[in-house]
Amino acid sequence: MQFAVPQFTDVEDKLIGPLTLKQFLIFMAAGGVILFFYSLLKLSIFFFFFAIPVGILGLAMAFGKFNGRPLYGYTGAFISFVAKPQVRIFKREEPDVIISFKTEKKTETKQAISQESNTSSLKKIAILLDQKTAEEKELIEK
């Protein structure tokens, strides 16, 4: 027994003339807003100032597509993007670790440097820089 497999499942049904139900509801909402502006402003320049953008937005939402998806599919993402803050500030926090150095260790490292003549100059410079930063941290903390 063979069954008919539905084709074109991604195409919405045309319910009201050439419009889908979502397109019709978008037109009804835009028309309601335009009617509201008409009841407030009558046929003044301000009515056209508000009604024309609402009508264009209604047309764009009903028929417009972006990346193959209708524009009304992006409204939730757009609203959440606008509602959330966009500024991100990185604030580095110093660790709360207290480091204490003993003077004996400093002299030991200086003696170790003088005793080891075979060590490379790069290691000597690294040890000297480490000692200097430790001394600078102590001066800053005082």
Briefly note the structural class of the backbone: mainly alpha
The main pleated sheet reads as:
2 strands, antiparallel
Calculate Rg over CA atoms.
36 Å
Q: Strand fraction band?
A: under 5%
Strand segment tally: 2
Shape: elongated
Q: How many structural domains are formed by the residues?
A: 2
Tally of helical runs: 5
Distance between the termini: 90 Å
Low-confidence stretches: none
Write the layout of secondary structure elements.
Elements: H1 21-41, H2 45-63, E1 65-66, E2 69-70, H3 75-83, H4 103-115, H5 121-141
Antiparallel strand pairs: 1-2
Structure characterization notes:
The structure is a single chain. Helix 1 (21-41) runs antiparallel to helix 2 (45-63). Strand 1 and strand 2 form a beta hairpin. Strands 1-2 form a two-stranded antiparallel ribbon. The protein has 142 residues and is mostly helical. The protein has two domains: 21-83, no CATH class; 103-141. Helix content is 58%, strand content 3%.
